[in-house]
Specification:
Strand 1 and strand 2 form a beta hairpin. Strands 1-2 form a two-stranded antiparallel ribbon. About 75% of the residues lie in helices and about 0% in strands. By secondary structure, it is mainly alpha-helical.
Length: about 425
């Protein structure tokens, strides 16, 4: 029983929503009913976009317009301009892309494309699009600002940018006119000063890098000298070991020779000779220890040089990364402005605007009628207690309406049933 009541309540809630929706006037974006020609319907959607007071109605009208003709320049231009006025250049980017394809002379569309490429750090593409926009928008401070930044980048880039000949010609031909535009000159000077400061820092880092590189060469040279010394000592150690081995072998074997009959004869060394051999072995072993001790000292120095070399190479790597970061263009040094519409600049909105739902109708008779329909639905489903609450509310809030009389009559029938 409880689940049945819940289902009924859901049905009634949906019914209430449908009743509210029936009372609202259809917006222009819901589609024209009287027109039959696609061109006429498209005009209505374009007008709806132009007159939209929030982004979502404009987006709805644009979607319906695209279903008729997505390559219509007037539709794409109206939507692009409206989104720019709402501070939504990211949404205006799509129609701008369509426009530069179907209407390459649309300078506003080129300005939007250049703005978006600039925001993404695609400076070569931004340069091309902004110069195309600049050909017909010399009075747009946003396009002039973006063009000034890109011109400074073009003049200071470490590697020659890969830009089209048309963009280069545009910049060269407008050089005198641009020199008189404050927005262009100001943006150019700002970015140019950033590059100048970076050039000074790069020069300072270059001198530090040269000093570190010189230190690395010195350490490597010293290390190579120690390696050569170790090789010499190793040779001396090997020589001493061979001598010691030979002396011990001579000491063990004595003298072997053939007598006059050809027989092998073994004779031990004399004591004096054996003492000389022992003395010689002692001297060689002392020399061997000296060589080993010297080799240990050299290896300690060599390990210290290796640590120093690694430190200097790490320092060189850090300096190199700093220089590379200074030479690479960082998107943070630029400030991009979306193009102006009809001379009005609208900065990009930080968040998508939240649209509000249309207000409920203010006509008391209509509002009372909506409540009465809901009360009848509750009564039909034998939920009289809820119907009574609504009917009493109608009498309290809309007592002077015609609907209130009907509500009073129904309430009189329900009260005896309570």
């Amino acid at each position: 029983m409880r689940s049945r009541h819940l289902a009924v309540i859901c049905v009634l809630a949906l019914a209430w929503a449908s009743l509210v929706g029936q009372t609202t006037k259809p917006s222009p974006t819901t589609g024209p009913r009287a027109t039959t020609s696609p061109a006429d319907r498209l005009k209505v959607y374009i007008l709806a976009i132009v007159e939209a007071d929030a982004p979502r109605p404009a987006m709805s009208a644009y979607a319906r317009g695209c279903s008729i003709d997505r390559n219509n320049a007037a539709l794409q231009n109206a939507y692009m301009e409206r989104m720019l006025k709402f501070g939504l250049p990211k949404i205006a980017y799509h129609p701008a892309q369509v426009l530069v394809r179907i209407d390459p002379n649309n300078s506003l569309a080129w300005g939007v494309v250049g703005y978006m490429h600039g925001k993404r750090g695609e400076l070569e593409k931004a340069f091309l699009a902004t110069m195309r926009s600049l050909e017909k928008r010399l009075d747009d401070p946003s396009v002039l600002h973006n063009a000034g930044q890109l011109s400074a980048w073009y003049d200071n880039a470490p590697k020659p940018p890969k830009v089209s000949d048309r963009a280069r010609r545009t910049l060269a031909q407008m050089k005198k006119e641009l020199a008189a535009k404050k927005a262009f000159v100001s943006a150019y000077k700002e970015i140019n000063s950033v590059y100048a400061r970076r050039a000074v820092l790069v020069k300072q880092f270059d001198s530090k890098i040269a000093a570190v590189e010189e230190g690395i060469l010195s350490v490597r040279k010293a290390g190579m000298e120690l390696d050569a010394k170790i090789r010499e000592i190793n040779d001396e150690i090997d020589r001493s070991k061979r001598i010691i081995d030979e002396l011990w072998r001579d000491l063990r074997t004595g003298v072997v020779y053939r007598d006059i009959d050809g027989r092998l004869v073994y004779r031990r060394h004399s004591r004096r000779y054996r003492d000389d051999l022992y003395d010689h072995i002692d001297r060689e072993e002392q020399a061997l220890e000296r060589f080993k001790s010297e080799r240990r000292r050299i290896r300690i120095r060599s390990n210290a040089l290796l640590v120093e070399l690694k430190d200097k190479e790490a320092q060189l790597d850090r300096l190199g990364r700093k220089v590379r970061n200074l030479k690479v263009v960082s998107p943070r040094i630029f400030r991009w402005d979306p193009p102006a519409v009809d001379g009005v600049f609208t900065p990009e909105a930080e968040h998508f605007p939240i649209s509000t739902r249309p207000a409920a109708p203010r006509d008391p008779e209509t509002q009372a009628g909506q409540r009465l329909k809901l009360a009848r639905l509750y009564r039909r489903h034998k939920m009289n207690d809820k119907a009574v609450v609504i009917l009493k509310g109608i009498l309290e809030d809309y007592g002077s309406t015609k609907v209130a009389k009907e509500a009073k009559a129904i309430l009189a029938k329900l009260k005896p049933l309570e």
